[in-house]
Design brief:
Strand content: 35-45%
Helix content: under 10%
Strand order of the largest sheet: 1-2-3-4
Number of strands: 18
Low-confidence stretches: 1-12, 16-25, 31-46
Structural class: mainly beta
Shape: elongated
Order of helices and strands: HHEEEEEEEEEHEEEEEEEEEH
Largest sheet: 4 strands, antiparallel
Radius of gyration: 24 Å
């Protein structure tokens, strides 16, 4: 794997030109509005006292708990950009995809679409340890209607790019039917038939680090995506899986005062291709903008500290869990 690039010029050659525009940086209030609650951008705002009326649409999976093994336990789940497909990853390295359909009552339902083996167990010869095939994150790439959608999957060390294609099988004509028709001795003909969908591997992205990957996110330019583990955030290019990697954040380069802080999630802004954010175990949401800098090892563009720890507050054994931000997402402004 190629070494990480560490200069601003190399980074400018790596990213799309849309990341290098000369527009002014968004203000603090603009970026803060992107991190509001899901109901802030809706036309009818919801009061905190109102309750959500959640209905059970469908129950997918094995109904008998005794028939479930440890490899069948779910480890990742996500929708595609249009909400048509629901993808599920399990500890056995499989990707199971369900398709949104209309049932007899005209309501939305999900039917089984396809599944494929995305990752298998491997062995790390340098550390003499097994690398689990468990799926840790899934990211769909196609935002519009597409007959062959693409999806990114990852386990602890490796990211793979897949494309859903028609599963074609060849069916031979029966020799018994040919003999009954008195057609003489001829070779049976074969026909190609489409039998569902299958995943075709397009590329493999290796991080080469010992940390376990937990986040995948595609950029708005549809050319790059980022991966994140507890210590690093890397940027990859979809067209160059073997040679392109750029390190955005590396906690191992920081001083010892940040030794307890870990990265918990990372997401791109789907409307601003130059903006991404990541959350930490100490209650911080860090927003970074490529137009301001390309090195965020020491300082992000914006930082929101939502942790409960203050100078006068008393810490407890549960402070580490109560301050941790497990996930965060940008909300599109619909106003």
């Amino acid at each position: 794997m190629a070494s990480s690039v560490s200069t601003v010029d190399s980074f400018n050659n790596f990213v799309s030109p849309t990341h290098k525009d000369n527009h002014s940086l968004p203000s603090f209030s603009d970026m803060k509005s992107l991190l509001t609650s899901p109901f802030a951008g809706s036309k009818a705002s919801m009061e905190p006292s109102e309750c959500l009326n959640l209905l059970n649409m469908n129950s997918l999976g094995e109904p008998d708990p005794s028939a479930i093994s440890k490899h069948d336990l779910l480890s990742a789940i996500t929708f595609d950009k249009r909400g048509k497909f629901l993808s599920v990853g399990d500890r056995g390295g499989r990707i199971i995809i369900f398709e949104r359909v209309k049932n007899e009552q005209g309501l939305d339902d999900f039917d089984y679409f396809t599944e494929f083996q995305a990752h298998t167990k491997s062995f790390d010869v340098l550390n003499s340890s097994d690398i689990s095939e468990e799926i840790t994150a899934i990211e769909w790439l196609n935002k519009g209607k597409c007959t062959k959608p693409k999806v990114l999957t990852c386990n602890a060390r490796t990211v793979k790019l897949w494309r859903l294609e028609d599963k074609k099988t060849k069916k031979q004509e029966s020799c018994r039917k040919m003999l009954t028709k008195n057609r003489g001795i001829i070779f049976p003909k074969s026909k190609t038939a489409v039998d569902g969908k299958e995943g075709k591997l397009l590329g493999t992205f290796k991080t080469g680090k010992e940390q376990h990957l937990h986040s995948l996110s595609q950029a708005a330019d549809n050319e790059n995506f980022l991966t994140a583990d507890e210590s690093r955030i890397n940027l990859f290019n979809l067209e160059r899986p073997d040679t392109s990697v750029f390190n955005l954040v590396d906690y191992e380069r920081r001083s010892s005062c940040f030794s307890d802080e870990r990265i918990t999630s990372a997401k791109f802004n789907q409307s601003r291709g130059s903006v991404f954010m990541y959350t930490t175990s100490t209650g911080k949401i860090n927003v970074c903008d490529f137009r301001e800098n390309s090195d965020f090892h020491t300082k992000p563009s914006l930082c929101f500290d939502i942790g409960t720890k203050t100078a006068s507050a008393k810490t407890s054994v549960f402070s580490k869990w109560t301050n941790c931000v497990s996930d965060a997402r940008f909300i599109e402004n619909t106003n």
